[in-house]
Amino acid sequence: MNTWRKASASGESTDCVEVRAAGELVEIRESDRPEVVVRTTPRKWAAFVRGVKSGEFDRYGDFTRP
């Protein structure tokens, strides 16, 4: 995987997170700011994805909760 990919749920939206493998790293960017790229290891990326799927970060999306 060296082409940018996004979630299929994003459809035709141009405002989404994209990800790709780049050698030994994983690159992540926001589609509306493609010049800003965050790089991490596959292990850290996998841990982040597991956290998202398990709801670990849900409270950060709810600005009504302290």
Number of helices: 1
H/E topology pattern:
EEEEH
Backbone CA Rg: 13 Å
Helical content, roughly?
A: 10-25%
Distance between the termini: 39 Å
Largest sheet: 4 strands, antiparallel
Low-confidence stretches: none
Strand content: 25-35%
Largest sheet strand order: 1-2-3-4
How many distinct domains? 1
For the secondary structure, the number of strands is 4
What is the approximate shape?
globular
Mean pLDDT: 88
The computed structural class is alpha+beta
Summarize the topology.
Layout: E1 5-6, E2 17-22, E3 25-30, E4 33-40, H1 42-54
Antiparallel strand pairs: 1-2, 2-3, 3-4
Describe the structure.
It is a single chain. The chain has one helix at residues 42-54; strands at residues 5-6, 17-22, 25-30, 33-40. The chain has one domain. Strands 1-2-3-4 form a four-stranded antiparallel beta sheet. It is of the alpha+beta class. The protein is 20% helix and 33% strand. The mean pLDDT is 88. Strand 2 and strand 3 form a beta hairpin. It starts with a strand and ends in a 12-residue tail after the last helix.
